[in-house]
Prior knowledge:
Blueprint: H1 6-11, E1 18-20, E2 33-42, E3 45-53, E4 59-68, E5 74-83
Parallel strand pairs: 1-5
Antiparallel strand pairs: 2-3, 3-4, 4-5
Amino acid sequence: MARITSSTIRMSRPEDWALSTTLTGSHASARENVEVKRAIVEGAFVVLHCHQHWPGDHDYVGIDIFRLDDVGKIVEHWDVLQIVLGHSEHPKGMF
């Protein structure tokens, strides 16, 4: 399998992804700034735990799951998003 990097994910976004998300419709809108906090790779899957800063909207904590083909191109995407809360009931926070 191809080596996966942030530029691999950013540059390989074809219009025919199988995108499964509840908030952004059939194709996700561009995000102004995404801070990757954790990345996990297993086989054909990449999981990112991110702090997402959306222009004109809330900040979100997100989990993005990508399935890649044999050359490292994204072929499927799922996500889970939650608005970053102003406070946490425990000291660890959301990240």
